[in-house]
Design a protein that fits this description.
The chain is of the alpha/beta class. The chain is about 40% helix and about 25% strand. It has a single domain, classed as 2-enoyl-CoA Hydratase, Chain A, domain 1 (Alpha-Beta Complex). It has helices at about 20-30, 65-80, 95-110, 125-130, 160-180, 185-190, 205-210, 220-235; strands at about 35-40, 40-55, 65, 85-95, 115-120, 135-140, 145, 205, 220. The strands form 2 sheets. Strands 1, 2, 3, 4, 5, 6 and 9 form a 7-stranded mixed β-sheet that branches. Helix 3 (about 95-110) links the parallel strand 4 and strand 5 (about 115-120).
Length: about 240
């Protein structure tokens, strides 16, 4: 990941002037992120794609989002006074639960305006990532898969193992419920649905369904997401009225 502390010179004389394409090369290649401008406001666009990579390195044939790159990048975005908002583009199949929750927690705790949009898919641990932003969108053609926590490799069939899975699922459910409009009871029903997936438990939601269930705020496009982020920035900058 490039050192964002070295970028002030690349903004030119005006702090509102976006960085050049060459300056954006490294972060775009390494973390799928880019600085851009919209109506004079500097936005950071971050993509979360493929599989969320956790403590184990996935094979090179997999497209991955590495949490050790994303976490410090999010901190730098929060602390960089030039950046006024964060746009998160999501197209992920899920991945490591704790890595995904760590990224989601940082996004949800940011004071700057944040907007997410699900493009293609926001499955599994991608759901907490989508709802972590202050406002969330989903493309009309996108989908989200809600299902229980899974594991790979050797599993011991003992009560302690099942209790561990239950507690991890509770962590995911708690985060999703806290950052969206869905109730814990309804989310649990979607997770344990046995009538939809042939070889699995869970529910697939398209864009309209995700909004109807209260997981996502609105169906929209990238343009809608950018405009919503701009409006949040403008509102945040507006001085409080005397009535407030």
């Amino acid at each position: 990941m490039s050192d964002w502390n070295e970028q002030p010179e690349e903004f030119g004389e005006s702090e509102k002037e976006p960085v050049t394409e060459s300056a954006q090369g490294d972060p775009l290649m390494q973390t799928g992120s880019i600085l851009t401008a919209h109506k004079g406001r500097i936005l950071h666009c971050l993509t979360i794609i493929g599989q969320i990579e956790g403590h184990y390195i996935l094979p090179s044939r997999h497209k991955t989002t590495k949490y050790e790159h994303i976490l410090p990048l999010l901190v730098s975005i929060e602390e960089d006074e030039r950046i006024e908002g964060l746009l998160v583009l999501l197209n992920t199949v899920g991945g490591d639960v704790e890595a995904g929750l760590a990224i989601a927690e940082v996004i949800s705790g940011m004071k700057k305006p944040t907007v997410s949009i699900v493009l293609g898919g926001g499955h599994s641990i991608g759901i907490p990532l989508a709802v972590a932003a202050k406002k969330s969108f989903i493309a009309k053609s996108a989908s989200m898969t809600v299902h229980p926590v899974r594991t790979t490799g050797l599993t011991l069939g003992v009560p302690q193992t099942f209790e561990y899975f239950r507690r991890m699922q509770d962590r995911i459910t708690g985060f999703v419920v806290e950052n969206s409009r869905i109730s814990p009871e309804r989310y649990g029903e979607l997770v344990l649905n046995t009538g939809e997936l042939v070889t699995d438990v869970g529910t697939i939601l398209d864009g309209a369904d995700a909004v109807r269930e209260g997981l996502i705020d609105a169906v929209g496009t990238v343009s809608d997401a950018v405009e919503a982020l701009y409006e949040m920035i403008v509102t945040a900058d507006r001085p409080p009225s005397e009535e407030d």
